Every structure is written in C-alpha cells, then in structure tokens.
Amino acid sequence: MVNLTIEGRPVTVADGTSILEAAKLAGVLVPHYCYHPGLPVAGVCRMCLVEVEKMPKLAPSCATAVAEGQVVHVHSEKAREARKGVLEFLLINHPLDCPICDQSGECELQDYTFAEGPKESRLREPKRFNPVEDFGGDVVYVTNRCILCTRCVRFMDTVAKDPVLNVSERGDRAVIGKFEGQDLTHPWAANVIDLCPVGALISKDFLNKARAWELDRTASICPNCSQGCNAIVETRDNVVVRMRPRSNEDVNQFYLCDYGRLNYRWLNRQDRVEAPLVRQRNALRAVDWEVAVARAAELLKGKRAFVLASPMLSNEALFLLGRLASATGGAGAFRVETGPEAPLAGVEDLALRADRAANGKGAELLGFTRDDAPLNAMQSGDVLIVADEELRGRDANVLAAKVADAAAVIVVGTSLPAWAQGAEVVLPIANCVEEEGTFTNLRGRVQRFLQAKAAPGLARPSWFVLGDLLAALGHGEPYYAASDAFAALAADRPEFAGMSYDELGLKGMTVAGAAEPAGVAS
Amino acid sequence: MSVREEGGLHAPAHAPHGDAGHAGEAPYAPVFVGARRRELDELLTRYPTKMAALLPALWMIQADRGWVSEEAMAEVAQVLDLTPAYVKGVVTFYTMYHQHPVGRHFVQVCTTSPCNVCGAEGVVDAFLEHTGCRELGVTSPDGRFTVIEVECLGACGFATPVMINEEFLESVTPAKVPEIVARYK
Amino acid sequence: MGYPHAPHPRETVVLSKYFGDPEARTLDGWKARGGYRALEQALGMDPVAIQNLVKESGLRGRGGAGFPTGLKWSFMKIGDGKPHYLCCNADESEPGTFKDREIMRWTPHALVEGVALASYAIGAEMGYVYIRGEFTEPIERMTAAVKEAYAAGILGANAMGTGKTVHVHVHKGAGAYICGEETALMNSLEGRRGNPRIKPPFPAVAGVFGQPTTINNVETLAAVPHILNNGAAWYKAFGRADNPKSTGTKLYSVCGNIARPGNYEVPMGFPFKEFLWDLCGGPLPGRKIKAVIPGGSSVPILTPEECEGALMDYEGFVTAGSMLGSGGVIVFDDAQCMVKQIARLARFYAHESCAQCTQCREGTAWTTRILERIEAGQGTMEDLDTLLDIADQMTGKTICVLSDSCATPVVSGIKKFRHEFEAHIKAKRCPMLPDTTPKIAAAASAAAA
Fold first, then answer.
1. What are the b/e assignments for A424-433, b being 16+ CB within 10 Å?
2. ipTM, 2 decimals?
3. pLDDT beyond 80 at C2
C-alpha cells in the first residue's frame, strides 16, 4: 500500500494505482477525457495533468503511478492553467453547436469548459470542417465534434476485439476512421456512444429525441436477457426514450449490448390493460380492484392453481405466484424466448445471453419449470393463471386447448391478447420499469430495479396485486411495499436468506449455492 | 499535402474486392502470390510478430501497383492477420504511401525552411510549370507527373533536394528543371 | 571544406574520413581501411566490459538528447532470459540534419559494424536499422552492406566464427518525422502508427516488441568501433579540457544561407564563430547572417551575436542559449523573412504531429495558421501574445517533445526578432516583399492636385 496526499487529503491505495484513481478514492475528480477505467491508458488528452511536488513537469495522472509520500495538487494554479489550455485547444475547432447537439447537457467538454474553460475563443481563422459519417449500426460520427480521445478505438480493439475503428491521418487532419464496407455492427458496438465524452459518436435511435436535461434517470436492470446488465432507464414525460449501461464490475462493467439498449420500446406499449376486468354478462367489463380480486379469489377457492408465468416477472411476483400454486396443489411453468449468444470478448462472463428474458433463473429458483410439462397435470376443474405471458409463437394452439379445458382462466398481465377474451378475471399489472422489484440473473445474482415511470390507468405493481390475492385466499397479509414482498421471499427461500433491499443495494448479491449448475429448487 | 477525394456523406460503397459495381474493371488480383509471397514469408522470419511486416508489405504493394488501394489494404490485412481498418489507420499515418493513383513520375520537392531559404519555392513552381501539373497533388494531363511539396527530405545541404520516384536528386535549381523533366518520359 | 568538398584542414575526420570514397562502401574496401577489427575484438569480450569501455569514453547520444551511451547500454540486463533488441535510429529527419545520410551512403559498413557491436554489447541477437523511407540511396547501400556482411560470415548465427549470433536487418520507414522519436520508431517498427509511447516503461524495460531495447543514433553507433580500436582515452581527448562532459568528434550538417554547405567533423568544444566563418565560409557574398539554428530546427534560434563566443558541445550551446541537438546548423541571412521561416517551421511540425496529444495536434496547426496570417499581413499585436501563450501551453505537457519543438523557434523567434513581426503587423504585409498595395488614394489625390 502507498500513502499519499491529494488536494490535502491523505489517502492510502494499492501499489501501482494511478494518481487519477487514487484521487477518486480521495473524493477528488481529476478532469479527464481519454482515460476510462475499462480501457487501456492512452494518456493523450492531457487534461488530467496534475502538479506533483518534486516533479519538474506536470504529470498525466492517468498514466502516473502513485508513490509513497507524493503530494498531488489537482487544482493548483499550474494545473488549472494547463487544463484551461487543453480546453482552449479542444474548443478552437469544436463547433459551438450545443443547441443542436444530442450530447449537450451530458457533455464533458461542455461541463469542464463551463467549470474552468476560457471565456472566449482567440481563434480568428475559420474552423476546421469535416463531413458527418454514418459508422453503421446505431452510430453516427460527427467528425467536427471529435476530440480524438480514442476511447472508441480502444474499446473496439481491446474490449470488443473487433478493431473496425482507427485513427486516420495525423496532425490536426486526424479523424476517427473505419474501412469502407466494415461497419460498427458488432453486437456491443453502440457502447462507443456512451464512451464518447463529447457529441462525436451519437445514437441514431436517440437522435434529436430529447435533451439530456429533460430526462429522468432511474437505476434499473436491462430485462432483455438473463445477463442482468445494470442499466439506467431514461424517460421523458413518462416514456422510456433510452437505456444506457450502469456500471457494475461484477456483471457488465460499463457496458450494455446493442440488443439490450435498443429493445426498450415494448416498455412503452400503448395497448395496455388499464383496469381490472371481470367477465359479466359474457363479456369482460371494467370493475373496481376489490371486485376483481374478490372474484379471482372466489374462482380459486378449493381449486388447484396452475401458473404459466413470464420470465420477465420479478422475483417477488414469481414468488407469490409460486406460493399460490404450491398452496393449492398446483404447479408453475414458464417459457423463454431464445436467440443467439453474443459475448463481449474483452470482459469475462459478459454476453447477450440466449435467454431473452431477465428472470428465467429466478423463476427456476422459485419453483417454476422451464417448459409446459407441469401444465400437463392440469385437469378440468383446475384454474389456469396466465401471468404476463402472451402465448405468442410456437404452440399457442396447444395452450389454447388447456385454456379451453380450465375451469377458469385468470390473467395477471400488462396486455390483453385475443385468447384472453375468454378469461374470467384480468388483473392489470405494471411492467418492470413501472414497479420496483428484483431479477435473478443467470449466475444467481439478485439485483434490484427501481420504478422509472408510472403504470397506465389502474394497473398496480405485480407484488401488490398478488399479495392482495393471496391475502384474499387467506395466505398472509397484503404487502404495502416491494421490500416487504421481498422480505417474505427472503424469509421463505433459503437461497435468498439474509437478503433485503438494503443489503442488495444497487449492485446486488448472489444467491446461496449459485456456483452450482442451475437446478430447479423445491 | 495529401490530396484525397472526399467521399462525403453518401459516398458510393466501395466494393472490397472490386468484383461488383465496377463495370469494365478487372477483378482485384492479389499482390502476395508467387515470388512476392515468398519474399514476404522470408521477411517474416526477421521479426517476432507478423504485424511488423506491415510497412515492408505496403512498400511491396506500392512497388507493384503504384499505390495502395483499399483492396490491397484488405489483402495485406488478411495476410498479416490484421483488420482492414487497422491497416488503413497505418497507411494514412505515413505520407509516402499513395492512397490514390499518381502520375508515372511522382515528384517530391522539399520546401522546409533550410530549402525554402535556398529557393525551393521556385523549384516547385518550375516543376508545376514544366510538368504541366499546374497544381500541387494533381496529375498532369498526360499522366506522367504528380508534383507535391514534401517536408524535410534530409539533404538540406544539397538544397533543393527532389525525389522522383526512387531517385534522389540534389541541388536542384529552377534552371535545371526543364532538363530533369525531359529525362522522365 | 567539409563534405561534399574535401575536408577542411581544421576538421578532425574520424567518421567522415571516407566520405566521397566509393571504395569504402564495399566490404573489401572497408576491411582494407581497418573495418571489422573492432567487431572481431568485441565478440571476444564480455559485453559488460564493452559497456564499461563506452561509458569511460564519454560518448553521448548524437541524435539530439545527448544521453551517455555506455550508461544507456548498462540498463540492459545481460542474461535476463528475454530477447533483447537494438534499434538503430536512422530516421534522420530533423530539418537541417543530413549527417547520418552521408555515413550510410559512404560508409555503410561502419554502421553495420557499429550496430553489430552494440547488439552484442547489450545482449541482443537482432539489430534493426530503421531508415527513413525517403533515404532511397542509404537504404540501398545499407542493404547491400548487410548482405555482404552475411555472405562473409560477419553477421549470422556464427558471427566472425565466434559462435555468437548477431543479426542486422534494415527496415524502411514510410514518411513520418515523428518516427525519429525513439518510442515512435519502435511502434513503427512493430507495424503500427508512429505514435510516441508514454514513458515509463522505458525502452530498456519494455521497448520494441515489448522486450528490453536500446536505441541509438547512426552517428553514435558509427563512433563505437573507433572507441574499441583506439581506446576510451583517445576518444576522450577530443574536446575541451575544461569540459569532460562532451567528448569525441561531432558531425555537423550546415545548410541554409551559407557559402559552403555540407558536413563538417570537428572535436567537441570547437569555437562556433570560427566554424561558421572559416570552415563554412560565412555568409553568401554581400549578405549578412541574421540568425542561426545550431542543432536542428527544434532548438532555440541564435542571433549572430549569441554565436560569437559559443563553443560547440552539449554544454557550450546551452550556455549560448540553445542546444547541440542533432548538429544541424541552419543559417538564415538578411534576405530572409524570419516570420515566414518560423511559419514554415511551424507548418513542418503541424504536418508531422502524430495527433495524439491535444496541445500538439491543435497547437501546431493553430500556431501555423496565426503565423501564416501575420506573414500575409493580417496579424495583430494580440496575435503575438496569443502565440506565446500557445507556445507556453505546448511546452512540457505532452508525451513527446514535438510540441515543444514547434514552440521553441516561435518563442525564440518572437523574442529575438520581434521587430520583424511588428513590422508585418504595422505594414499589413511582409516588408521583405515588394509593396503591391494599390495606390488608389495616392493616385486620386495626385489627380485632384
């Protein structure tokens, strides 16, 4: 360990730590552009120059290792002047197009210039001009805004291991380039957009959609595969407009795949069930929640409940559905859509997973089976609960027969597909960005997601609805907070023992015995 | 100095192997076959990595084809286990690789300060006039010459040094230019 | 007179003795002139003993930085189990410098011998000679010499029959000044863009191909066989008695507005004024020397007055306010516009910046644009302050010193020739050029009168 002082604050860090990282631990931000903790050090932007006592020149803090007894000044006159110089150099040819730039509001060039940059430009010559280039995939390169930090090039080289970007030309003619016909089509390529500290690499999907300051940001988990990448869901006026990675060293480092990040529109579906429905006079009619829950409880009384649940449901919802099935002598099943895996080569155990749903692992741990087999035990007179499962695709007909067979069908879901017109009760629930809950990723990591937007109409959080239903059936009390539902789960399931929302925090915890191959519990 | 055709926003896609969309154009013939391939393989024994042979390999391409096309970059990338984008990044760094066809005789006139004070600008003008190029970086109408200004050729005591292809001429003055131009057919 | 003319009697020709002698180019010719004796002797010595001998000679790097060569070699840990490499920096591209070119053109075997010897002394089995791509003739000569040396068994797995392995390989650059920077050269040799690397790690720890590497300039390596042959004391004796830090002879390239441009070899500590006037013949007839850059374009410009008492060695030029650098002496006479020439130098650096560091990429180009604007008569007094500010921001803040090298002539130029800058700004044109301003007002008033 090495002891040093940064901006007057003593800090002790591991040998070999850079001054920049040590400063972070001391609570001091050293402004920087090219440095990124997930990428090899380039040391080229020269923004992170700091004054180190007894060193003749300013030192690049990203590329200088700490030394015992070092005294580092980040905000000394000399260091600030150097940063001001870098900012002036970066700005001379940078267009002042912040009003039309998507990065505006979350731009590090803007931020640092505002904080300590020069007030006006001394450039009297015309600015350099280069055309905009489509890099393929979701990425557009606005050359004029580029500060040549090379984060994107290093990401494609060392993390994606698909070196399709380069620095072309040299001197002030240098630009980020690619080879004609070879685009940014790598399944993780859009991360260069997040890595770009300025508005040079921007998303086509997000282009001109919203200003950064209009967005509400919520910590969440990407629901689009079982990797459980930590994500930020960004909404504007209650509509999800963008999903970006949230760093978690143990899961996704700093990254989110293109499939995950661009697959958010389903969270904004407009064809939602907005009120509880009950079959009356041969048609589904909107009723009060009390009426709907009472009717569902009435249908379930003395019947076996078989559950077909979506693996997009939270642990909390699956736990309560599982309890409903086991308490009545029924069983639970789930189906997962799959697709090709797409690993991110430079990060261990990070991939777009074959399971294109967040919580298959949670469903298994909570007693659900990964195929329809348990439903074969259904006999006429049993109740079928379909929980947020639209029964699209492969064998909708087989299931339709079961639906026809059931004494009653209860739908707990976000939408109302055609077959559900035959249901007795429909209980509308929130989707995963409209409620709080947890998912368990394929490695057994339990991670929280928070509510990013309001659910439509009278739809309620799944744990709330199912808690009410169980209470109506005489199983426990209703829950008034997601954390209570999770506490009940943790108390009931040994794999989740000791967990709570507080314990999970925003980084999550791994279930007991997760190292074992995925097996179906209880 | 390097004059490049800007493709702009919607440049037509360049067929990587020249076999589509270029009516009448011969398909790309690889450079690294036969003797060139053996030469490259022999060269690879001089370095511990394949990548190190990139600059020499690009020189071979330029020697055979007169310039380094995108197809050639793709070929050398494949031969040396690199990506075409990587190769292009390297090619564009070094000023001596031609990224577009040039005249039969490529004239480089040093105009950096030591030569500049000895009248290099006059030498450039004389070449532009006598070759018929008229403009820097533009190939003469007869396809014979392309003239560029170049930074320090490292022969400052022999101002003005001029390189024509591989030939290095010393102490060139404007008066000598017509005779020099006449020598290159 | 120095090469391309016959040596001046006041020269001390060691390295340049056979410049202009075509026979010295061949292996037989070189052997007849005492070649490869030093290598043969060295291959029988302990590498560390060679390192010590070179240390004792006081030989310092001739590429520009002047680092003690023996000390540099001693950083290579013989027998550490890793492959070692020697790189010979023959990328000579500092404006004003053309000495390595002549060494390679006339005495290629001198360099092959030096490279082989140094490789052995640092425990390397491979020495790469990285020659800039524009040096077509030196590349040809060196390639031929290496081929001859292999054929004669001087190089190879059993070098000179000693059982030692010494390989030399010529690598051709492709047009990039920055590849003369040692770590950029290594990147270029590896087949990368010639971007300088952050140090540490230093080349002796992780150089080319990530292995311990020593990199030396052509002139440095060419001097080593002479030290082996004649001893460290002989080498040390060249130089002034009161400065033991600079030893040996030094090749200077002289160019620009001078009567006899060319290469001159003199011992360390030679008086600069006599050098310029006696050896090089002083200014062209009817002209006066206005400015001299003594060590390649990257060092501060000197006025003739500053050249007066200067002594030509590492310390002497520092005392005079500049640096020995690469030994490229550029002379400007009173017919030259300093603004134009400084702008031209800045343009060189802007063209050659590798584009990594912000200050260099943007600063070199911006500096050039301002200087060219002043030269074109569009400058303001504030521009001079801006230039100095930019130069300050470009100094000491980047990975390599290309940025500093661009700032140096700007700062010393504005400091020493400020009146020329101001004259441009006031006259709104270059005062050295004929006044082409239309005389409309004058003509009109003449007509009215």
1. bbbbbbbbbb
2. 0.94
3. no
